[in-house]
From TrEMBL:
Keyword field contains Transferase: yes
Signal peptide: none
Listed EC numbers: 2.5.1.18
Sequence ranges assigned to domain GST C-terminal in this UniProt record: 89-212
Organism annotation: Novosphingobium taihuense
Identification of the protein by name: Glutathione S-transferase
């Protein structure tokens, strides 16, 4: 049985969970939240598995896979299901992987600078706020243009797995501008997908952890 270590409120954990839920792949979830009586053991396992002890971590027998993207690649190869997580066509797969990098690097990680600043200093400095706003908004506008030619799948691929947590949390930090109508509509569409709404609902009770304060929506 596959095992996934992560936290229900963790963006990168969602990325892996969405892929597992979309394919109905059976797995045991080892939650790193304080409600889990085995939290300490789960945390220790995660700490040992990768250089920085980050999560999610997938365990398949003797195999450990970390980095959410690599977990999805592993699931596509070894535990495929109805949702084609990575396109079979190698050329199409390049675009899918490129977009995965766009969401991680230019939305999620760009937004994370504000979250880190809030954790470290209790608030976000004007300098960080404006830098994050400038970078994330630039990424939003680019993605909004990209969406004009994107044929949305009925289910999820690596692109959706990466887009969901990035757009969910980034919009809390820097709202997607009104004039990025395609992106706003796509975010709403993604949040309504069953594997995604499951993550959103399971994480709802942890929203008070969001260092910048979670908005009263979504
Ligand atoms: N590049 C990693 C990032 C994982 C990551 O940043 N995970 C966060 C939770 S969303 C984490 O482990 N935070 C705890 C820590 O940094 O110690 C991935 O794609 O999986």
């Amino acid at each position: 049985m596959l095992e996934l270590y992560g936290h229900p409120f963790s963006s990168y954990t969602w990325k892996a969970l969405i892929a597992l839920y979309a394919n109905g792949t059976p797995f045991v979830f080892h939650s790193l939240d304080g409600e889990n009586p085995n939290q300490a053991a789960a945390y220790a396992r995660v700490q040992e598995a990768s250089p920085m002890g980050k999560f999610p971590l997938l365990v398949d027998g003797s195999r450990e896979v970390f980095e959410a993207t690599s977990i999805i690649e592993y699931l596509a190869l070894h535990h495929p299901g109805p949702a084609p997580l990575i396109p079979a066509d190698p050329d199409e797969a390049i675009t899918t992987r490129m977009m995965d990098r766009v969401f991680d690097n230019y939305v999620m990680n760009a937004m994370q600078e504000s979250v880190d600043d809030a954790i470290r200093h209790g608030q976000v400095s004007d300098e960080v706020r404006s830098r994050v706003e400038e970078r994330v908004t630039r990424a939003y506008r680019w993605i909004d243009g990209w969406l004009a030619d994107y044929t949305r799948p009925d289910t999820v691929s690596l692109i959706e797995c990466a887009a969901v947590p990035a757009l969910f949390y980034a919009d809390w930090v820097t709202r997607i501008p009104e004039d990025c109508a395609r992106l706003r509509q796509w975010r709403a569409h993604l949040l309504a997908l069953p594997p995604v709404s499951r993550c959103v609902e399971d994480a709802r009770r942890f929203r008070h952890y969001f260092p910048l304060g979670a908005p009263d929506r979504d």
